[in-house]
């Protein structure tokens, strides 16, 4: 591997300097340190002052300022913070890893954007007159690092634009003039620069609206807010795994492609390799273009001949001529019928045969829920969860629903409704505790920029138990408030839910025992035959975060409900097997990751809660 | 919630007994304990002898034996292990949670399968003559618990069959006769039984082949081996998250539905809601059945009329009659043309318009890799990984490839080839360490039943560094072994890989710097213009576990390679933006979860490494 030296520090030990400086936590897979390792410390990095580090990131903003009177060729950082040993960290790196050789090769290899090292690309070092102040981010934390670059090190105009990438070695220092930064980096070497095409870079301007950013899903994580959301989402995802793993649940990956379609008349996305086959057929049809043209010619001839016959008839000319003309026309007609028949049968074949052929042998769909398959694993492994994408053909407001969204789904065997409610409540409260613990700075950012109640909301959710009321009680409570009565059996609206969670209880509310017809057929029917053992968790501001319930474990009841809904038993007979053989009471729930992100952050558009939102007409990136 | 008492112990504290017995770790979301909490202890559960617990699970096997002379009505367990206090645990539960009330309700609610409590369903307790010995599993660990049930507690024939579910309260006891079990459970109450339809239950017989089990993906996790694989897979999944999270990577969820298709001529699954639209069109066509029938009638008439005209001609009858007949035929022809035209245009519309219309506005696919989208997040958040399903239209051996498989994909910004190789090697070694630590019993099971080298293999992978050779070196090494030369540039076969990893090195081998044309266009071209900075990790027995490389960060090179492959630039222009704006050197890799499961367990059929395998013609459950 001598031909491709690496920045990695993982395989060899770095020579120890004496006395040992306070440790900067290094990233294991390059010599670079994450900004989090500096700025994420309780002291904001002050304790690391004097240490030489390598950092990389993207410029958030950059300004050039006149340099106060300092002797040229020496940066103020190097002056203020004498090097601990004679040999600099960069020299160690160079000796050890031949960075320069490799960079020289990169240079000759033709990097398209600006790239230089050590000194400006355009000649020998000029006398120092200006200094660049760059705020850079590497995505590892919410904070940015100020990097001070002397113009003797690099042409400043190349590194100041927003969006430029930079890999720089320097010394951590306490800024001489007190300001908003606890520490800054005094650059000693600029090792790599990736420029921006400033005319085309859409994120050049400072604060951009979330709606504007949505048009650039591949670039928007460079916006501070979108990066914060990504870190919050990461933390919530990992806490989800932590919660279930630490409580003895097994993560099982359930299928996306399914032939079990129990959504009744609701549309699902279909999966096929059909249209490429249909393309073949259309191509086949195109080969017959020649024939199609012939058909057109014949049809034109038929028209012409018909006209001629009409003339002959009108002119009362001899019958011999008319007869010949008619016989001639008849031949043309026969030929036309033949060609038309051929044409039609190709088209019909394309539709009928190609539509019924399928890679999976029958119509296959993208699963809208792993629910049914998950029960199969719960009915042998006891307590399981899945966490993955699910798919819905949604034509509602794109800000409220997604065609592709991530769900955690949970199933507990030997468990009743209340067990699932307890588990779901604990899960949400765990997420609230952990997000405050793991993402304090990103949450502060959300608090300032999106929703100044978000931190209070999740703190209060984490600390007090949820309210629990039955659907029937919910209707009674609402009817005390409203002129217009809520009729028992109707599905509670978003507005009803908000009145309960935001106004009446001021905390999450679990509403259980819903009317049978408002919930899926596999939920357990209660003895009143009117309600099922379902529950929803409604949170202030966010609305419905969780849906769940106890499943119908009794075979006869389940078949009966399926029949009433018009489901075809053979479509889900495998699911009935779970009741035929060793059935148990079991309960579960599902929660949408995007809805949880929205609850935690206060975001009001679901497209901002997922990296690449998918919706009608929208999957371009 | 008084109407639906729960078995949950999470909300109320259980009255303390004095003196406190050794603690059984309780499951938080029901009063049941996981078998792992008993059998997973270092002492196999012996230290818990005398404790009363509630367990649930499925019967693996059951036998009925004559009971040795013991006074009736008292089970040997109760006799051997006097209750610590006057009040039994079950009485506490009954008082507190009204279990009996609830069970009574379940009984009246019509459970379809066998269900009874306390005593046999068919009358008062009979004098005790026999005892049932059940081995049960709840999926929480590889071991089974022996449950001893007196025939006075339940009709044994109902609970002995394999696959029966049972919820039972009893006392943990050291078996009187020494045998294979460290402890057993002496049942005191049978709280719930879910019978099996023995004639139809496919897993009634003892040891079943994996091929047989594959036909029942929804039931096969009840087989010990499949459950072990599921626990190993869970552990590998969670360790994957642990490894990347602890090293500062962010988990980002990348889209499944994509319109970016760079696989060139390789087929991808398409996503649509088309065929239901096409169904509409076909229905529309069906409405025109009436017209179609008319057309058939007319065509029959035309045939008849044509025949008549031929007869008229042959009989040389008067021209008047022939003329009338011909004119009559002509009218029929015109009508037929009209109807045919209408029919054809409906069919053409169905194909052309409906095929080009699409939910996402253009052709959308199931992503075969999150690679490109992941780079977008790496180029702002630095180090990211995705972990989710990917899709391939595969027509190879179903035992070797899947249409739907789980991949972890990783991307590091400011990182070179060697950084990614180091990270991938550490990742695999971490998985090997953690699986031995977290799943020792399941790994023992694999060792005994599947592959008696699997434990040695993962231990050696965890302890020694991988070999690293370039592709060119690999070809030279192989050519020393073979008569038949391997030509530089050919893709190494599975056999070549096996010779390197199994025979020559006897450990995993990283092969890097592959011929340009054998790898994707986005890998970084080396200065020789012949190779790219790619790498594969080949493991003994399993073959290729990881593929990765350094990505081309230079815009001009990337465009050039895409052009040579005939890619349409506008299809991936957003991806080029990542090079136009703040490009950095970045590297990454991807690893298939199923391949890792196969490596770890020694399984040789990939369909056994995933819960619900998807392949051509196979997505029925």
Automatic annotation (TrEMBL), chains A, B:
The protein's name: asparagine--tRNA ligase
UniProt keyword annotation of Ribosomal protein present: no
One GO CC annotation: mitochondrion
Family assignment from sequence similarity: Belongs to the class-II aminoacyl-tRNA synthetase family.
Location of the region described as Disordered in the Swiss-Prot/TrEMBL record: 1-22
Keywords: Aminoacyl-tRNA synthetase, ATP-binding, Coiled coil, Ligase, Nucleotide-binding, Protein biosynthesis
Superkingdom to which the source organism belongs: Eukaryota
Species annotation: Dendrobium catenatum
Record lineage: Eukaryota, Viridiplantae, Streptophyta, Embryophyta, Tracheophyta
Gene: SYNC2
Domain Aminoacyl-tRNA synthetase class II (D/K/N): 357-616
């Amino acid at each position: 591997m001598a031909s491709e030296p690496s920045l990695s520090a993982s395989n060899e030990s770095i020579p120890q300097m004496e006395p040992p400086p306070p440790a900067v936590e290094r990233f294991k897979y390059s010599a670079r340190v994450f900004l989090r390792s500096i700025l994420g410390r309780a002291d904001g990095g002050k304790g690391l002052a004097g240490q030489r580090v390598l950092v990389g990131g993207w410029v958030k903003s950059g300004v050039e300022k006149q340099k106060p009177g300092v002797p040229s060729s020496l940066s103020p950082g190097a002056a203020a913070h004498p090097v601990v040993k004679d040999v600099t960290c960069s020299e160690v790196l160079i000796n050890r890893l031949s960075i320069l050789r490799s960079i020289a090769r990169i240079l000759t290899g033709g990097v398209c954007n600006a790239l230089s090292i050590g000194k400006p690309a355009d000649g020998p070092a000029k006398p120092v007159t200006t200094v660049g102040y760059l705020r850079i981010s590497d995505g590892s934390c919410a904070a940015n690092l100020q990097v001070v670059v002397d113009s003797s090190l690099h042409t400043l105009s190349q590194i100041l634009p927003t969006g430029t990438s930079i890999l720089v070695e320097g010394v951590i220092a306490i800024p001489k003039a007190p300001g908003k930064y606890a520490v800054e980096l005094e650059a000693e070497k600029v090792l790599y620069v990736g420029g921006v095409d400033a005319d085309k870079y859409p994120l050049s301007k400072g604060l951009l609206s979330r709606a504007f950013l949505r048009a650039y899903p591949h670039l928007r994580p460079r916006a501070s807010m979108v990066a914060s959301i990504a870190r919050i989402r990461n933390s919530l995802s990992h806490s989800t795994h932590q919660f279930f793993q630490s409580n003895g649940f097994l993560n099982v990956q359930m299928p996306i492609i399914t032939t079990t379609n129990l959504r009744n008349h609701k549309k699902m996305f279909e999966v096929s390799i059909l249209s490429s086959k249909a393309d073949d057929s259309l191509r086949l049809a195109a080969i017959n273009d020649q024939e199609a043209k012939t058909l057109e010619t014949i049809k034109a001839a038929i028209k012409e001949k018909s006209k001629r016959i009409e003339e002959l008839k009108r002119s009362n000319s001899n019958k011999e001529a008319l007869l010949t003309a008619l016989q001639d026309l008849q031949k043309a007609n026969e030929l036309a019928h033949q060609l038309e028949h051929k044409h039609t049968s190709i088209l019909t074949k394309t539709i009928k045969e190609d539509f019924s052929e399928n890679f999976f042998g029958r119509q296959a769909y993208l699963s809208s829920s792993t629910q049914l398959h998950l029960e199969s694993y719960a009915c042998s492994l006891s307590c399981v969860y899945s966490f993955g994408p699910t798919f819905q053909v949604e034509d509602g407001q794109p800000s409220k629903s997604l065609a592709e969204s991530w769900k955690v789904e949970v199933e507990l065997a030997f468990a009743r409704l209340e067990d699932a409610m307890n588990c779901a409540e604990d899960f949400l409260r765990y997420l609230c505790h952990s997000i405050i613990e793991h993402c304090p700075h990103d949450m502060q950012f959300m608090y300032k920029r999106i929703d100044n109640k978000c931190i209070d909301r999740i703190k209060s959710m984490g600390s007090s138990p949820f309210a629990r009321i039955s659907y029937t009680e919910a209707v009674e409570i609402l009817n005390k408030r409203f002129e217009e009565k809520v009729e028992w059996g109707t599905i509670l609206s978003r507005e009803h839910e908000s009145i309960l969670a935001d106004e009446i209880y001021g905390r999450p509310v679990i509403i259980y025992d819903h009317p049978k017809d408002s919930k899926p057929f596999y939920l357990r029917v209660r003895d009143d035959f009117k309600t099922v053992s379902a529950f929803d968790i409604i949170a202030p501001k966010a609305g419905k975060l969780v849906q769940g319930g106890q499943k119908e474990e009794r075979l006869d009841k389940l078949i009966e409900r399926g029949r009433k809904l018009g489901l075809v038993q053979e479509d889900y007979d495998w699911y009935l097997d779970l009741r035929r053989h060793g059935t148990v009471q079991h309960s579960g729930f599902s929660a949408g990751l995007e809805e949880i992100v929205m609850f935690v952050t206060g975001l009001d558009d679901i497209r901002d809660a997922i990296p690449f939102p998918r919706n009608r007409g929208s999957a371009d990136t």
